[in-house]
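Components:
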Amino acid sequence: MNPDNIIKVEKLTKRFGEFVAVDQISMDVGRGQIFGFLGANGAGKTTAIKMLSGLLQPTAGKAMVNGFDVYTEPEKIKRNIGYMSQRFSLYDDLTVVENMKFYGGIYGLNNKELKIKTEEIIQLLHIGDFKDKLVRSLPLGWKQKLAFSISILHNPPLVFLDEPTGGVDPITRREFWELITQSANGGMTVFVTTHYMDEAEYCDIVSIMVDGRIEAMGSTRELKTKYKAEDMESVFVTLARKSKRANQE
Amino acid sequence: MRQFWIFVRKELWHILRDRQTLFVLIGMPVAQILIFGFALSNEVKNSKIAIVDHARDNASGELINRLESSKYFEITDFLNSDHEIEKAFKKGSVRLAVVIAPHFEESLKHENKSSIQLIADGTDPNVGTTLVSYASAIIGDYQNELLQNTKLPYTIKPEIRMIYNEQLKASYNYVPGVMAMVLLLVCSLMTSVAIVREKELGMMEVLLVSPLNPFFVVISKTVPYLIISIINVVSILLLSYFVLEVPIKGSLMLLFAESILFIVTSLSLGLFISSNAKTQTAAMFGTLIGLFMPTLLFSGFMFPIDNMPVPMQVISNIIPSKWFFIIVKSVMIKGLGFASIWKETLILLAFTSFMIFVSVKKFNKRLEIA
Amino acid sequence: MRNIITIVRKEFAQFFRDKANIRMLLVMPVIQLLILPLAADYEVKNIKLALIDHDHSPGVNQMIQKITSSGYIHLVAYESDYKDALRLFEQDKADIMIEVPPQFEENLIRNNEASISVSVNAVNGARASIGGQYLQKILQDYNMDIRLKWIQFPRFNPIPLVQVESAYWFNPHMNYKQFMVPGILVILLTMVGANMSALNFVKEKELGTIEQINVSPIQKHEFIIGKLIPFWIMGQVVLSIGLLIAYLVYGVVPVGNIGLIYLFSSFYLLVVLAFGLLISTFVQTQQQTMLVSFFFMMIFILLSGLYTMIDSMPAWAQMITKLDPIAYFVRVNRMVIMKGSGLSDILPDIGIMICMASALISWAVWNYHKRS
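Structure:
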């Protein structure tokens, strides 16, 4: 294990009664990486993310996030991560600026920092005209980009994105990934789950989860070579076919 | 028709899944009947009273004994002055003070005249009046006994009979009221919210493109609530008959038929609201403010309509629950037949047809636009 | 602290964004206070009397005149027999019928005694019993009148007589509105507190924004406190509006110290808000919230003593009222507003509010799992 890795996970397990949602997964994520976390629905991705972000107590195994233990220091972890879930999570009856002020306030930004950050995001997303409009009135793609920008308002070293591009058109998706890459270039680690296999290509490392276990991990090129596949789609299908959960349904 | 039942089955599944809601829907009438039947009575008993006995003689002692032994009063304080009475009232520890004048027995014997003052906490006017009249009656009995069978001349003896409800049970009035309230709430609130929820979630379009006639889609949503309401009617009647001992004097069939008519009325109101509301919250507040509040206010079982200002009395006529309340009271408590309630029934029928007509019209228009 | 302020600010921004909220905050107290006291007039008056007179003597006329002159009882119909009069009962067109037998006056004079039969429509038991009492009292008075008139004074006087005088304190005009307004104020406050706060929490759940809060460094208690403060303030605002309306419309001026009302409401609001919070931890959707809070609200309001006296409830129901916060505030509010009770009178109630608030808040916070 490289001590500098931001996420260090060993045999992490979560059981809900009889059901093993996450089954002894292990992984290491280096700083500044974009880590793609792929898997079919119900493979256990969201449960894994919830454990890593301090929302859910694991049943067994070890996990350190940015040097903090998920068992004993979840509050410290929360201070050091950003999080954006598959469900849209800005208040749609507040304006763009009000949302920024709120989340900035929660993460302890002072007024000066907040002002600079707000200005930065408005510039970056070109939403100067909309800053006093209700979030409700923005198109979905913009909301999504805004939610991402706000989730990293406090400059966390690590951000979790749980299916951030669901339901968004291809052009916006590309723009969204540009934002992500930009942040990663700035040194931020991005831990992202997705269904879109073309998006896997943006990731430095990809892991594929099947039935609560990590079946494969590596760069997309390594995986494609290993499974002798043209693209990630075929890699995924090859692996996902083994799933017992999916076949049961 | 088969398709219709498939829709109904889907709606039933929805409701059976949602245990919390189902529990409240079935449990609400039970709780209401029990509370109204047992806990809410205007009967005054065991009221805490204070005695200010300035006489402290045999006669006053005898009188106090009589007050003590009555089921209406419980003497908790013996006080000495008006000031202390005021203090006790302010603490809320007693509701009535009986002040016996000094030399009570002596004056009664020698001057044939003596006085007692009843001071009531008038905060609640009805309770105040009732307590004073009970205490007066006890004092009156005492006085009659002092007369030792000397018969008063020229006595008018009123023989009072309570018709329909000899024991003056409050539940006779509340049971019909609870029926009106519960049926209206379950049917109109739940249907309107259920339909609007589908609209909100965008499921409505999916259902509407199905081969079934759109209006049946909507009707199918009301069937489960119709069933729950019938269960509620049965449980209310069983509880009130066996537990509260409220008799069903008239025809059970008639009562049932009228209940189903009112259920349909309430469903039509639910349809009407859902054809107007865009969000669940709007539907909820619409039902609560537009239907539930008026039912509570104007049906006549919680608030006396006769005492209201004229404009409010006029408004009460357009509240369907008022008519249903009258119907249930007539059939269940008074034991009357259809001949006495045909007018009320007709009003409900007309109201229901009107509501259905308006909602269908509105609903069809929506479809054409969509 | 800063975190709490951030949340409070956000809540206020959201609240005032929606004009419907403001309207509700202002209009609800106005409507409830204008309509409910008008409707909740339980004074028994307008009693409709039907007369079946088989005697047709001047005495009967005098008696009826005495009865109707009270103003509470109106003669609405003369009927020739009991059956016809009963039909009026069936249609609720009469509340009381008096049947005067033939030779009533004659019997009274000859036999020193005559009876009349009184029937009361008793579907509404409370109204029937009070109406019956009125009538009896009036008949007694009338009886006394004729004795005094027909008998020479010296002959009548030797009977021992206990004079009963009655007085009603705190509400000498026996005005029902004075009695209802303080109670309705409490209901208002409760609706704002419990309903709106529960809905507010559940809305965050439904929209998923709560997840975003959960992964943030905000602590459980900070989030809850930050959310409760705005509703606490709005509760006090509603109370103030209500008190103002009570004064302007009904002339209700608290006899006691108005500060006591605010003191009590400060603790009371904590209880109600905690209750709303507790509900929100058990339910998932706004629809369930409405239904569940409605269910409890109904039980609490009915048992609060707002409409019926707690003293006359059975023991088990009285036990429940001990757990009913509304019952405490209704009682305290009436005591302070109508009787001018002081701090020492309501101190025990304040103590109970504090206990309830602590218990409910602990329960709610414990239930509000941040980590499952």
